[in-house]
Amino acid sequence: MEEKFLNLFSPLKVGRTVMKNRIISAPMSGHNLTAEGHFTPETQMQYEILAKGGAGAVVIGETLVHSKTGNNHGRVLRLDDPEALPGLHKCTDAIHRYGALASIELVHPGRRADPRYNEQGKTYGPSAGYCHYGDGEHAVTELDEKLIAEIVEAFGDAAEMAMLAGCDFVTVHAGHGWLLNQFLSPANNQRTDRFGGSVFNRARISLMVADNIRDKCGPAFPIDFRVSGDDFMEGGADQETVIEFAKLLAPHIDMLHVSATSFHNRRASIRMFPSMFHPRGVNSFLAAELKKHVGIPVVTVGGFNDPAHMEELIESGRADAIALGRALLADPFLPEKARLGLEDDITFCTRCNNCVSVGFVPYVKYNVGVSHCSVNPWHGLAPEFLNRRKPAKKVKVAVVGGGPAGMMAALGASDQGHDAILFEKTEALGGMLKFAAFPEFKKDISRFIETISKRIEKRDNIQVMLGCEASPEEIKKLGIDKLIVAIGAKPIELAPGHSDPKVVSVIDLRNPGVEIGERVVIVGAGQAGIEEGIALAGQAKKVAILERTSSIASDAAYIHYLALVDRIEKLDSLEILAGASYLGACGEGAIAASNEGERTIPADTIIIAAGVAPLSEEASKFEGCAPLVSIVGDCRKAGKMSEAVLSGYFAGFNALGLD
């Protein structure tokens, strides 16, 4: 086996500890904790999968050190509660079984705590004032030196407990607008005592935390600090400030983990969880610059997917390790696949940000508590994944439709050892994803289609029939045990002017012979319409989007929605006309109606992006064609990519029914 990524899979010394490779599972919060914030077996398995997938270290996410002054969530692990130790120890044991190191992220949210969870309903920060929290604000009480000393001790105690629970090091969060970053940031710190003013004074609490951990855990226990290389906001800690901070901090710690931004900025999440509009590895230049000024390992994070990209960064000396978050939710086995030369089988994260958004309180109204991945049907199903088993016998499965639901259905059946035959009426797999992937910022969807297509091609128990539109009569003749219908949906047609040559459906935009003019009207400001509008405006087209309601991209995940809004505001050639209904096409363009009456909007091309309707009637014709029939994906209910992937895969995986 040729080893391609020699640097990525070389050991890394962190203090006196050695990590087996340079891939770190970035801090990600555990799900399904108890009401007290304790780990459940399901939480432990969530981190176990990340270790099983080959990461060199797994960092357990967001853990509180001082609950009475710094609690920003209801159900969150708290290391000022000794009762948390048994569950945490079982988790680190699970991580160690695969040769990975275990760390835990120690957090005090400071002014960004939720007053509902703090003692006396108070929120504390470096300076008094007000802090935005979701759509509201709350008052902030300035920390006095007694409380500062208590919080410093709490960090050290938490690290000591983590060490007792089997952690190999700790990751102190001093970025993203949490307490230690707030002290560093002039926007949050207006103190005039020894904790304010100069960079040294503003760094003082971080140095005290590092030294307190060292005193309690000893010189052999590594300390990792997570910092924002730049807050990217007015009055925040800029790159120059963070360099000075890092130079002060480095002699006290063993590794520096470099992210970016601060929650003080309402749109920080767009960069904190880099949207599809950012380049891969968007923060790597910050890590590279800091690495010039410190003599300890430097970790970079920020939208990485490709092992070749990671290898190049480490080989060039711009980083010592790469931290992966969402990439490991999309494919927990990314590290091991890369090590074994199977990088073509890695499922890339598409950065839809659905996984993060569903629990992004207080910016979303409710914490759903369960997230789905657009490309990984096993995400969030750790116990089911680790305890899955093959059925006692295999069956024959037919799948009609080669979109995401159909492709995943065939793979699900194949994973269980069943024989599957996949019918697709066109000459290529992918369904509507083939059209959704055209904007440059969505190219990872093309990668998903390619990866899944190759995976299917390599399976001996999947037969693919391209250019073959299967009929119910033909399916009946196959003598199959289960039929999965995944024929998708069709665009909703808007009758007025639909025969006008300048009117085209959003999914037909890239068909041969379709030309897009310089002036474009898009009907519908859902996610598809907005994304096409952004793509076309980026090509210097003049774009107007008609939306009969007052909202845009209401079907997008919250953080992706923020990214879309941010992008729109930067495009002078894109206009959104809310409260405007499309009445039809005319010679000059599109006729729209609003409270101000009718008007004609000049257009060379009118794109209909009014949504899709399930092909439910067509799907129902397949009922009775096999002993078991499942209707999945958009032909059952028009929805998100994640819903198609999930419903399709498990329709195939559970093809046998009761076993």
Describe the fold and architecture.
This protein is an alpha/beta fold and 659 residues long. It folds into 3 domains: 12-383, Aldolase class I (TIM Barrel, Alpha-Beta Barrel); 393-491 and 614-653, Rossmann fold (3-Layer(aba) Sandwich); 503-610, FAD/NAD(P)-binding domain (3-Layer(bba) Sandwich). The chain is 30% helix and 21% strand. It is built from 21 helices and 28 strands. The strands form 7 sheets. Strands 3-4-5-9-10-11-12-13 form an 8-stranded parallel beta barrel, surrounded by 5 helices. Helix 18 packs parallel to helix 19. The longest helix is centred in the first third of the chain and has 20 residues, at 145-164. It starts with 11 loop residues before the first strand and ends in a 6-residue tail after the last helix. The mean pLDDT is 95.
Brief summary of the model shown:
This protein has 659 residues and is an alpha/beta fold. Helix content is 30%, strand content 21%. It has an eight-stranded parallel β-barrel, surrounded by five helices.
Key structural traits:
659 residues, alpha/beta, TIM Barrel, Rossmann fold, FAD/NAD(P)-binding domain, 3 domains, 8-stranded parallel β-barrel, 5-stranded parallel beta sheet, 21% strand
What proportion strand? 15-25%
What global shape is seen?
globular
| Radius of gyration (Å) | 27 Å
Which residue ranges are poorly predicted, with pLDDT under 50 across at least 5 consecutive positions?
none
Q: What is the straight-line distance between the termini?
A: 39 Å
Top CATH class of the largest domain: Alpha Beta
Counting H and I runs of at least 4 residues, what is the number of helices? 21
Number of E-type strands = 28
Mean pLDDT: 95
CATH topology of the largest domain: TIM Barrel
CATH architecture assignment of the largest domain: Alpha-Beta Barrel
Q: What helical percentage do the residues reach?
A: 25-40%
Global structural class: alpha/beta
Strand order of the largest sheet: 3-4-5-9-10-11-12-13
Q: Output the CATH homologous superfamily of the largest domain.
A: Aldolase class I
